[in-house]
Amino acid sequence: MKAELRERIRDNLLSGTTWLRAFFMLMFGVICYYTMWIAFILVFFQFGVVLLSGKLNERLLPIGQSISLYIHQTLEFLTYNSDEKPFPFNSWPIPNEYDTKPVVSLPKEPEPPQKNDTIGNGA
Fold first, then answer.
1. pLDDT tens, 26-36?
2. Domain housing 85
3. Of 54, 60, 84, 122, which is least packed with CB atoms within 10 Å of its CB?
4. How many whole angstroms separate alpha carbon 42 and alpha carbon 48?
5. Is residue 111 part of a domain?
6. How confident is the model at residue 6 (pLDDT cuts 50, 70, 90)?
7. Count of domains in the chain?
8. In this structure, what is the dihedral angle of CA atoms 63, 65, 68, 70, given to the nearest 10 degrees?
9. Are 86 and 28 in contact (CB under 8 A)?
10. DSSP classification of residue 69
């Protein structure tokens, strides 16, 4: 029984597919790390746009969704939940139209009062 277990462990250690997977996992781990930084930059930029203008930058929504999907695919591969390698071994994830609609609704601010030209003119 112990010899059988040792033999299985030895086979696993010498398996080329296991080490090839380890290489890809290391590569995608590094790529995922840098992709997360790009996502953080996008997050802060979008927050800055909302802070200054009160509106979402609609052009950034599909980019953010696409990066999120890529990170998800990469983590699925890294955690052995998928054997599919993400981009560049597969196509870049493209969010569908439903996913790109903003799920955040910013509060509407009241319109500023209109200037009344009759005030201050002595009329």
1. 999 999 999 99
2. 28-100
3. 122
4. 10
5. no
6. confident
7. 1
8. -70
9. yes
10. H
- The region that residue 95 occupies, defined by phi over 0 for left and psi between -120 and 50 for alpha, beta otherwise, is beta
Q: What is the mean pLDDT of the chain?
A: 85
Please identify which residue in the block is written with the tokens 């290391």.
Answer: 26
Q: Do 32 and 74 meet the contact criterion of CB atoms below 8 Å apart?
A: yes
Distance CA 97, CA 30 (A): 30
How would DSSP label each residue in 36-60? HHHHHHHHHHHHHHHHHHSS--TTH
- Residue 108 confidence (pLDDT) above 70: no
CA distance 10 to 117: 89
